[in-house]
Amino acid sequence: MVSDTVGDCFTRIRNGAKARQELVTMPYSKLNERILRLLKQEGFLSEVSVTESAPKKKDLVVRIKYETPQKAVLEHIRRVSKPGHRVYGKIPGTKGIRDGLGFRIISTSKGILSDRQAIEQKVGGEIIGEVW
Fold this sequence. Notes:
- This protein is an alpha+beta fold.
- It has three helices and ten strands.
- It has helices at about 5-20, 30-40, 115-120, and strands spanning about 25, 45-55, 55-65, 65-70, 70, 75-80, 90, 105-110, 110-115, 125-130.
- The radius of gyration is 15 Å and the shape is globular.
């Protein structure tokens, strides 16, 4: 049993990209699905789908996007707010991650947003992770 499903999700994606796997499978959760769909929307993943492997058991299947056969688009994904140490932020500043090449994943009252979307909607929240 995994206590930090988001951290597990990030680790599976990171390891899959380093091993140059095309598909990565992980247990389903609504939070993970929303985070993965945000990563797809931002252009770091090719495809995100939900499959039923058994009755009442769902999995998330992620297709990792590659620039070349050797290099994944997603270079780095890091968990910021952890179960033992939550990190919250106000409306993000204008300075982005890696000079705009990456983004922060923020859990707000309006859902899971990138830092750019949080600036537009003028909301803050829990900083879940950083991606570039």
